[in-house]
Amino acid sequence: MILALLIVVLACSARPPPAAAGTAMQPGEACLRRCGDIDIPYPFGVGRGCHLETGDWTFSLSCNRTADGRQRLYNYQIEVVDMSVRHGQLRIYSLINPWCYNSSTRGMNGQNNWWYDMSITNFRINDALNRFTVVGCNSLAYIRSLNDTTDLYMTGCMAMCPGVGRLENGSCAGVGCCQTAIPSGLNGYQISFEEKFNTSGTSSFSPCSYAVLLEAAAFDFRTTYVTTDEFMAANGNQVPLVLDWAIGNKTCEEAKRNASAYACVSGSSECVDSKYGRGKGYLCNCSAGYDGNPYLLNGCQDINECESSRYPCSVPGTCVNTIGGYNCVCPDEKSGNAYNGTCEQRKSQLGWEIAIGVSAGVIVLIITACCVYMIYAKRRLAKIKSEYFKQHGGHTLFDEMRSRQGLSFKLFTQGELEEATGSFGVVLLELLTCRKALNLEELEEEKYLSSQFLLVLGENRLEEMLDPQIKSEQSIEVLEQAAELARQCLEMLGEKRPTMREVAEELDRLSKLACHPWGPPDSGELVGLLRSSPSPTTYSGQSRLEHGSSTRNVSFDDTAYIGIQSPR
Predict the structure, then answer these.
(1) 502, 506, 499, 512: which is closest to 540 by C-alpha?
(2) What's the confidence (pLDDT) of residue 1?
(3) Cis-peptide into 43, omega within 30 deg
(4) In the structure, what pLDDT confidence band is assigned to residue 417 with cuts at 50, 70 and 90?
(5) What is the mean pLDDT of residues 464-482?
(6) Helices (H), 490-545
(7) Tens digit of pLDDT for each residue in 176-219?
(8) Per-residue DSSP letters for 158-218?
(9) pLDDT for residue 233
(10) Which neighbouring-strand residues pair with 71?
(11) Beta strands 60-65 and 45-46, pairing class
(12) Is 450 exposed, middle or buried, given 0-12, 13-18 or 19+ CB atoms closer than 10 A?
C-alpha cells in the first residue's frame, strides 16, 4: 500500500525535464542502452539527451540498483519489464491488490484500494492483451475510471467457490477465478472490492481475494492461488501489464510538416497513425523487407530473409537475398517452383532440338517445291494460252490490225460480246444504210441514225433508208429480217435484246438465206430457212458499200465477228 501511494504521489508531483523544443534528436554514444538484462531502444533512454523529448515522461527511464543487488529499469517508480519499438508497446509490472480475512480480528482487513493515473504520459492500456482478473471465493471486485475523468466506465468480475473440489488448474471461468475485458483507450483506472462479498465464510480454505489488471498471456490460474498465498509469493506481488505508446499528439500528416521534429528519421521507414484515433500521436515502422529502429538515422536495414530462422523458400539452397526482399531460384541444371514447390532436374533438350530442326527442314522443302511448281504451272499456262491464241487466229487478228493502222479497234471479251448487242445494232444499221451513226450536218431529227431508223421502221418506210446497192444485191425479205434484228438490238432495256449467240445464229441463218437460189414462194426449203435458227457459222459474204467519194470492201468479219468464238 505504501509503495502504491508513493508511486501515485511521484507520478502526480513529478515534472518532466525541459524538452528541446521541436527537435527529433538522436542519442549520444555514451547513452545507456541496457539496464540489467533489459535492452533500452531509442526513443526510450536514461538521462537527458538519451531519450526522445516529447514534453512528457513517456520515454524517460531510470536504471536503479535495488536492495537485492539487481539493476532494475523504471518509468517513474513503476518497474519496466521490457519494450518493443516494432509493436509500440511497453510492459510494466502491475501491483496485485489483495483483500484478506484476519483470523485474529475475526473480520476482513481494510481494503488497500489503489489507482493509477497515466495522463502525464502518452501511454494507453492495451485492451486486447490485458484482462481484469479476480481470484478467490465469494469475491466481487470492480475496475472503474478515475473520478476526475470525463470518460466514465465501470466493470466487475465475480469468482465463486462451491467447493475446493470444483477448482481446476488453467480454468478462469468463474470458479475460483474470473476474467473480463476492459474498454479501449484507458490511461488510468482504480480497483475496489465489493464488501458484501468476502472470504469470511471461506477463510478455512480460502482466506484472501485478489484483483489485478494484468497481461492475459502471462497468467495461468492455479488452484493454489485460491487456497494459499502462492499468487502473491510466486510473482513478487506484481504481474506484467501491456501499455501502448505513441509519439506526441499529432497525426502523421501533421507531424511531417515539421521535419525537424518528425521522429521517423530512418530511410526505408514509414509513419503510422496511432490506433487510438486522431490526436493520439503516431508511430514509425520500417518498410516491408527492412528491420531495425526507424527512430534512428539509418536505423532500418535490409532483412536477409535467407538467413532467418524460418527459411522462406520451399527448396533448401535456393534463396537469393535482394534489397527489401528475396527470390527463390532453382539451380541452373534444375527447373521448377522454389517458392512453394520443388526443383527438378531439367530433361534433355536434344530431342526437341532435333524435332524442331527436322520440322523446319520439311517446311523449307515444301515451300521450295511449291515455288517450283508455281513457276512451272505459270509457264505451262502461258504456253497453252499462246497455242490457243495461234489456233484461234490471234496472229491473223494482229496482222489485220497492223494493216489498218490509223483505225481504232476495241477487243471485246466473251462476256462483253454477249452483252454488247446494243453497240452491234448501230453497226448493222450502218451496213444496211451506208450512213454514219451520228451526222452533225443533218437536220435535228436526222442527226441520229438509230432514232431515224426506228421512226421509219414504225411507219413501214424501211426501203427509203436502205442503201440502193444493198437493195439491188439482196432480197427485200433478207433485208427486212436484218432490219428487224437491228431493231431488237436497239431495245432500251438490256434484257429485251438478243444475246450475241442469238445474233450470231440469226446472221448465220440470214447468210444462208441470202445465198439460197430463190425458188417458188411456197418452197419447203425456203420456208425452213425463213423460220429456222441453225447453228452459228462464220459469215464470209461481202457487200460493196460506198461512203462519200471512197469505196471499200466491208464484211461481217470486219465488224460483227471479231472475237466471237464461243457464243453463249
Answers:
(1) 512
(2) 38
(3) yes
(4) low
(5) 84
(6) 500-515, 524-531
(7) 999 999 999 898 999 999 999 999 989 999 999 999 999 999 99
(8) EEB-S-GGG--TT--SSBSEEEE---TT--EEEEEE-TTS-STTSTTT--EEEEEEEEGGG
(9) 95
(10) 65
(11) parallel
(12) middle
- The CA radius of gyration of the chain, in Å to the nearest whole number, is 61
Longest dimension (CA), the chain: 174
**CA distances to 13, 382, 384, 415 from 388, in Å:** 126, 10, 6, 18
Top mean-pLDDT range of 106-110, 117-121, 219-223, 446-450? 219-223
Q: Is pLDDT of 488 > 60? A: yes
Q: What pLDDT is attached to residue 454? A: 84
pLDDT of residue 500: 80
pLDDT above 80 for 414: no
Confidence of residue 445 (pLDDT cuts 50, 70, 90): low
Are 44 and 83 contacting, i.e. CB atoms less than 8 angstroms apart? yes
- pLDDT digits 0-9 by tens, 342-374: 888 776 666 677 888 888 989 999 999 999 999
Contacts of 401 (CB under 8 A, 6+ apart): 409
Amino acid at 296: L
- What would the grid cell of residue 424 be? 452491234
Pairwise CA distance, residues 239 & 78, whole Å = 12
- Please name the residues in contact with 120: beta carbons below 8 A apart, sequence gap of 6 or more: 11, 12, 14, 16, 56, 57
Per-residue pLDDT at 416: 59
| Amino acid residing at 111 | Q
Residues 6+ apart with CB under 8 A from 21: none
Joined grid coordinates for residue 198: 468476502
Please give the average per-residue pLDDT across 256-273, as a whole number. 93
Angle between helix axes 449-458 and 476-489 (nearest 10 degrees) is 120
Q: How far is 402 from 404, CA to CA, in rounded Å?
A: 5
- Report the pLDDT value the prediction gives residue 513, as an integer from 0 to 100: 78
What is the model's pTM? 0.57
The residue among 561, 553, 556 whose CA lies nearest residue 420 is 561
Contacts of 249 (CB under 8 A, 6+ apart): 122, 279, 280, 281
- Which residue reads 470525463 in cell numbers? 150
CB 162 within 8 A of CB 234: no
CA-closest candidate to residue 544, choices 470, 481, 462, 475:
470
What is the end-to-end Cα distance of the chain in Å, rounded? 128
What is the average pLDDT across 14-30? 59
Closest by Cα among 549, 539, 555, 557 to 431: 555
Task: Give Cα 459 distance to the centre of its chain.
Answer: 85
Kindly give the pairing relationship between strand 282-286 and strand 269-273. Answer: antiparallel
Asked if pLDDT for residue 288 goes beyond 60, the answer is: yes
Q: Could you please report the per-residue DSSP string of 412-446?
A: PPHHHHHH-HHHHHHHHHHHHH---SB-TTS-GGG
